[in-house]
Amino acid sequence: MDTSTHITIGIGLAGLAHIDPVISSNPELAQAVLLGTIIGSNAPDFDYVIKLLKGTGMYTEHHRGASHSIPALFIWTFFVSGVIFLFGWNVSLMHLLLWTFIAVVLHVGFDIMNAYGTQAGRPITKKWLSLNFIPLFDPIIIIVHLIGFTLWLTGLPPGIVFFFGYIFLAIYLINRYFLSIQNRKFFLNKTKKSGIFTIIPTIWLKKWHFVFETESSYQVGSIIGKNINWIHHFEKHNPNCEIIKASLTDKNVQHFLANSKHVHALYFPTSSGSEVRWIDLRFRHKDHYPYMAVVKLDQAKSILASYTGWVHHSRKLNEKLLPSEKRAMQL
Fold first, then answer.
1. Distance in angstroms (rounded) separating the CA atoms of residues 225 and 145
2. C-alpha span between 235 and 40 (Å, rounded)
3. Could you tell me if 187 and 228 are in contact, meaning their C-beta atoms sit under 8 angstroms apart?
4. Element (H or E) spanning 263, and its range?
5. Residues 234-283: pLDDT tens digits?
6. Cβ neighbourhood burial of 136 (10 Å; 0-12, 13-18, 19+)
């Protein structure tokens, strides 16, 4: 989920905490819990420091990794609660720990529900876990919380308001989960195809994207109601292509491939040599695949520049590649 959703859920949990009379009757404890749930709801994403220290490539590989693992659930809970408690808050540490823990667990839980997934099973397994039934940003989750905040501000008991709000969201999420299973079965039964099928949620309940991979190709499309729409067909790249093989030596490509799925490589000539793009076909916006790794090579297939991450505009990509390309040309 995106940061705004995690913050919103953190505030909502603080409202739900008022269902406990100990918290609702103690303003100082309620404020401490509010801090704990907001920070705890975002703590697993503090791995953003990797991007600041090691760059976008390293962050792409390790984001939602160790910071979302089983031990991290407890580490973040004790760290966040401990910092709040040590700042002099005269509150019940057990209540603070409980609600901060719930916030951390929900962060990881919601991340598992979308297509990107997490390594939440570490250290037992490093497999990426993704259930693929809610989008990276879900407006229903935001709307339910905004209604809750409005009712809270009008004076209604926040504990009761968010208790019913979260019951509604639980029903909504369960419904989405079973819809994803139904659409998967519908696709496989109707097409009778054999291959690797991945369903990707959109913000609409009746519209789901998908990627279907065979030994020789990728097919991308949408399921809308009871209709399957085939949108793009990609023949798999030749693994022996010298240009593509050269791009594999780039660290950013290696970081990207570490946690991507249904990855297709394509290349085209440029004035300086060639450009290779590795795109993750799960993330499609109209006719564009914004999650990628890009490598610029010279005529001798030496790497001039590279970048990995989300690219929504070519101009932005050129801005990210140009500085490193200039440095490479000067060497």
1. 28
2. 44
3. yes
4. strand 263-269
5. 999 998 999 999 999 999 999 999 989 999 999 999 988 999 999 999 99
6. middle
Backbone angles phi, psi at 132, to 5 degrees: 60, 45
**Amino acid at position 260, single letter:** S
The reported pTM is 0.90
Q: Is 226 helix (H, G, I), strand (E, B) or coil?
A: coil
Q: How many residues are there in the chain?
A: 331
pLDDT tens column, 169-193: 999 999 999 999 999 999 999 998 8
For residue 289, give the nearest of 199, 197, 211 by alpha carbon. 211
Helix axes 139-153, 158-191, angle to 10 degrees: 170
**Cα–Cα separations (whole angstroms), residue 57 to 150, 286, 329:** 41, 25, 21
Whole-angstrom Cα distance, residue 302 to residue 328?
10
- 23-27: long-range pairs with CB below 8 Å, 24+: 23/95, 24/157, 24/159, 26/91
Distance CA 82, CA 55 (A): 30
Q: CA–CA separation, 36 vs 83, rounded Å?
A: 10
